[in-house]
Amino acid sequence: MSIKLAVLLFAIIFQKSCQSYLIPKPEITVYSPKGFSVSIPHTHGISSVTFQGNINRELRNFNDIDLLSNVTKVENGKWIIRDFNSRLQSGDLISYRLLVVKKCLRYWFQGERFLVKEVVNLLPSAPPIPVEKDHEACMRSIHDLTQTTIQQKALIEKLESKIQHLSNYVNSQNGRSLILTGRITKEGYPSDTVTFVLNELLNLDTKVLSAHRNTDGSITFEVPTSEDKSDILEALKKSRSTRISIKEV
Questions:
Q1: 3-class DSSP string for the chain
Q2: Which letter, b or e, does each residue of 197-220 get, where b requires 16 or more Cβ atoms within 10 Å of its Cβ?
Q3: Using one digit for the tens of pLDDT, what is the confidence trace for 72-129?
Q4: What pLDDT was estimated at residue 188?
Q5: Measured torsion, CA atoms of residues 61, 63, 64, 69, in degrees rounded to the nearest 10
Q6: Would you state the pLDDT for residue 143?
Q7: How far is residue 94's CA from residue 126's CA, in Å, rounded to a whole number?
Q8: Which residues touch 198 (CB under 8 Å, ≥6 apart)?
Q9: Which residues, in sequence order, are CB contacts of 219 under 8 Å at separation 6+?
Q10: What is the pLDDT of residue 7?
Q11: Residue 27 in contact with residue 39, Cβ under 8 Å?
């Protein structure tokens, strides 16, 4: 009887010693832009830790779990569960439970909720720029921009001068003269005839600088600019008139 009693007492003491382990409250850290970690301190005999959880919904059974992770190696005196995909923000709720295997026995820490109140930024922040260097960089940028603006202005003025010279050259090389032919009157002033054609047939109010009648009855006339000349030819093309014809000299 004494041997059986001793064995029974040993079994009771062993069971109580095994069941005396209580899982400490986990430390949970939420990261930005995503991820979080769950950790508990290491105790001799722990061989694995499993995390099960849901985000913003209750953790009711073992078949409805969003997050499941298991670690079998202690890290710097802690058992750390890491999630690298979940995006959490302040106000989110993590419902979770932990399963710890210690000396072949299973211990549960369940029915817990963690409310996210703060998020740790994982992205490195840029070092502050000294005010002096910032001011120097700003002044240097303003100087460079001013020099570029001056150079561009000089280039624009040079291009405008070349365009003006080219326009003068075009206008001086019969660039403003046209010949009017067709069913036109051979009486009256040639300039009046040209003005009538431009106003009534082409709906233009272009000024006629000069006009003279040729021996074949056509009229050669001149307008102020080469642009006026182009407008007349374009208007005649659109009118599709068969009564008159206007051509370049």
A1: CHHHHHHHHHHHHHHHHHHCCCCCCCEEEEEECCCEEEEEECCCCEEEEEEEEEECCCCCCCCCCCEEEEECCCECCEEEEEECCCCCCCCCEEEEEEEEEECCEEEEEEEEEEECCCCEECCCCCCCCCHHHHHHHHHHHHHHHHHHHHHHHHHHHHHHHHHHHHHHHHHHCCCCEEEEEECCCCCCCHHHHHHHHHHHHCCCCCCCCEEEECCCCCEEEECCCHHHHHHHHHHHHHHCCCCEEEEEC
A2: bbeeebebebebeebebeeeebbb
A3: 999 999 999 999 999 999 999 999 999 999 999 999 998 889 999 999 987 655 555 5
A4: 84
A5: 100
A6: 78
A7: 32
A8: 204, 205, 206, 208, 232
A9: 179, 180, 181, 184, 190, 193, 194, 211, 212, 213
A10: 46
A11: yes
CA 93 from chain centre, in angstroms, equals 32
**CA 68 to chain CA mean position, Å:** 36
Domains detected in the chain = 23-116 (2.60.40.2140), 177-248 (3.30.70)
Owner of token pair 């700003």 = 138
